[in-house]
Amino acid sequence: MPSHSEIRELPYTAEQMHSLVLDIEKYPEFLPWCTNARILSRDLNKNIILADLVIGFKAFSETFTSSVYFETPELIVVNFEKGPFKYLMNNWRFCSIGSRCNVSFDIDFEFQSRILRAVMAPLFHEAVCRMVGAFESRAAHLYS
User: Fold this and answer.
1) What span, in angstroms and rounded, lies between the C-alpha atoms of 18 and 12?
2) If pLDDT is split at 50, 70 and 90, which confidence band does 114 have?
3) N or C: lower Cβ tally within 10 Å for the chain?
4) Where are the domains positioned within the chain?
5) HEC-encoded secondary structure of the chain
């Protein structure tokens, strides 16, 4: 799959955006195609959360497990642990600019299944843009 990177300057603090992205259990409320989210474990000494997400679209539904490493308020790193991917890497960086922040988002993944790769390849860019937009809209809902 292709990778995607983008940076957006948003009218929210780095702390607010970090908190929003780390609130994994709320993802089904606003994130497209996320039908369920569950925290499996939290190791606050190591700043690691293990979480399951269920992604569904029409007849397709898959659960995947990720480890989420975080440094408050500037970094969240998501790594695939178990599920339908060959690999998944996703990084969020939050850089304060006064009461605003730059949000940097990078994602790279590949499905194990050739069928899923063929289906998702043409939709990748639109899907990622919708996901990032969903986080921005959620921030507006929570913090404006």
Assistant:
1) 10
2) confident
3) C
4) 3-143
5) CCCEEEEEEECCCHHHHHHHHHCHHHHHHCCCCEEEEEEEEEECCCCEEEEEEEEEECCEEEEEEEEEEEECCCEEEEEEEECCEEEEEEEEEEEEECCEEEEEEEEEEEECCHHHHHHHHHHHHHHHHHHHHHHHHHHHHHHC
| Residue 56: band (very low, low, confident or very high) from pLDDT cuts 50, 70, 90 | confident
What's residue 116's pLDDT? 77
Tokens 């194990």, located at residue: 112
Record: fold of 3-143: Alpha-D-Glucose-1,6-Bisphosphate; Chain A, domain 4 (3.30.530)
- Residues with Cβ within 8 Å of residue 30, at least 6 apart in sequence: 134, 135, 137, 138, 141
Q: How far apart are the first and last CA of the chain?
A: 35
Pair of tokens at residue 60: 């397709």
Written as one letter, the residue type at 41 is S
